[in-house]
Design brief:
By secondary structure, the protein is mainly beta. Helices cover about 15% and strands about 40% of the residues. Strands 5, 6, 8, 9 and 12 form a five-stranded antiparallel β-sheet that branches.
Length: about 260
């Protein structure tokens, strides 16, 4: 950059008086400004009004040139190490006591972890199971609602099914329906299926939940191609609990399932 002395003087005079160091050009003009940077051979200054000036280093006085060299030759000060946050000790040096009441972490095979994920919701308390009812009558309309359902375990293997061996799961199908029964004036009744959601789970003899689901009633109807298909891990005795919510009432049922190894016809 070639800037004549009169150009530098004009820049310094145009900046006016500003807080900062006093800079002098080779022409004798002065200005108060703050040193910002040296880019190549150009000095960048900033006045109090925020306006920046770019002046060739060679157009400043020898004292100012020496000042710029001293500023740019200073070694960088290493950043101070911040103190530990909240006064905590380094994580590696802390010993956290484990209370004796901390529950143990159980580990097991992948199948057990899958069952644990499926049964992440606890089964219904015994009092709520006992309170399940299969029928409800709406006193306002006189309509009666019936809840029907159950489970069907696969006992026979088809021609294309592989032979069942010890350790194989046993398939079962769960179906249910909520039926509204409305009496007609002629004395007959009109039956219509209602939609909504149903929750259900299957527990083994120890009370442990094998799986638990929530499905639309329309997909659980006892029709070909419908119903929920699940698996029992082994032969034995299981309990199905299934229910739905209707107008602040819980309609549902329980059923005992006897699972035996399926055989071929």
């Amino acid at each position: 950059m070639n800037a004549r002395p009169w150009v530098v003087g004009a820049l310094l005079i145009a900046a006016g008086m500003a807080s900062g160091r006093t800079w002098t050009s080779v022409s004798g003009s002065t200005v108060e400004a703050e040193f910002k940077a040296l880019q190549g051979t150009v000095v960048i200054l900033e006045g109090a009004d925020g306006r920046r000036m770019m002046i060739p280093l060679s157009q400043l006085s020898p004292e100012d040139q020496q000042f710029v060299r001293e500023q740019t030759a200073r070694p960088a000060t290493p950043p101070a190490t911040p103190p530990p946050r909240h006064g905590r000790e380094p994580r590696t040096s802390r010993t956290v006591p484990v209370p004796s009441s901390t529950p143990a972490v159980l580990t097991g095979p992948a199948s057990a972890r899958k069952e644990s994920k499926d049964s992440r919701l606890a089964p219904l308390p015994e009092s709520e199971i006992a309170a399940l009812k299969r029928q409800f009558t709406d006193e306002r309309t006189g309509d009666q609602y019936e809840f029907l359902g159950g489970a069907s375990v696969k006992h026979r293997l088809g021609e294309k099914d592989p032979d069942w061996k010890e350790g194989d799961p046993i398939p079962l199908t769960i179906t249910c329906e909520l039926v509204r029964v409305r009496k007609k004036k002629d004395g007959t009744s009109d039956r219509k299926r209602e939609d909504g959601t149903a929750e259900f789970y299957v527990a083994d003899e120890t009370g442990a939940v094998v799986f638990r689901r929530k499905e639309r009633l329309s997909t659980l109807e006892p029709e070909p191609g419908k119903g929920y298909i699940g698996e029992l891990p082994k032969p034995g005795k299981y309990t199905l609990v299934i229910w739905t919510e209707l107008k602040d009432n819980r309609l549902g049922l329980t059923e005992t399932i006897q699972a035996r190894p399926p055989t071929r016809n």
